[in-house]
Request: fold
Amino acid sequence: MRPVHLLRVALLAAIAGPVLAGPLAYVPNEKSATISIIDTATDQRQSDIAVGQRPRGIASGQGRVYLTDGKTGSLLIVDTVAGKLERSVAVGQSPEGVSLSADGKLLAVAVEDDNSVVLLTAPEGREVARIKVHGKNPEHAVFSPDGRWLYVSAEEAEQVDVIDVAARQQVASIPVGKRPRGIGFLPDGSRAYVACELAGKVYAIDVAQGKAIAEITAGEYPNGIAVHPDGKRVFVSNGRGGSVMAIDVASNTVVATVAVGKRPWNMALTPDGGKLYVANGRSGSVSVIDTDSFAKLRDVEVGELPWGVSIR
Reply:
């Protein structure tokens, strides 16, 4: 290759920057008002995007990250290619969890002060329904894999509220333990797992029967839930215990416990299920866990008060 061509290649490489080989993990930091971006191939923090005033709930897809801003009562839609805020949509006071339906057409935002779940179109963020729920201070509203149901947890509740998405209304409540938090469905939608913070347990719910079929003792203040894509394991974070537990779905028993940072909260798995990323709120870090060996690989420093993780 001639020298001029070598120079051109070098210049192009310099302009393009490092190649990101893996899916990206997006971490909202409540106190820093930023999103930290981690390359899951290298587990290196690549950059931060300043956004909102108190970003917390997060979902991602279609080249965008969707966040709730607890201080401004907004849904923030961030263009991940441009690395900047695309638009802000008012949803109500103190919104928290946000989820994206599997078909990428609907967003659900849990609004604490309004005791409601707001449905919006994706990616536009146009409100199409505001659905009241029985539980006070709803924290998470999670779509079932087929998009038929929304399971809603609330800080002041002992049940999971069930919303019929097509009917745009709550149709049932399923008794669980005190203060339900994180929710995750098995990939086939047959079960949902719910972490109940004050009960110290994870409840396995049979979706067809609409009732809990197992109570699994977790650590102190179980909080976040993440479901492995093979449907064989469920992970729960223990906020006060500083650990993550792996639950075997076949037996509904804990098979491993991994120490992480302080106040582990919400989590996400890589698409292949090989690694779990855990936001440690009081440590300002994300712990990376190998899901085969149940070993912590490393801690990645992020911003202040990381709330959770979304991976795309």
Notes: Residues 1-20 have pLDDT under 50 and may be disordered. Residues 3-16 form the longest helix (14 residues).
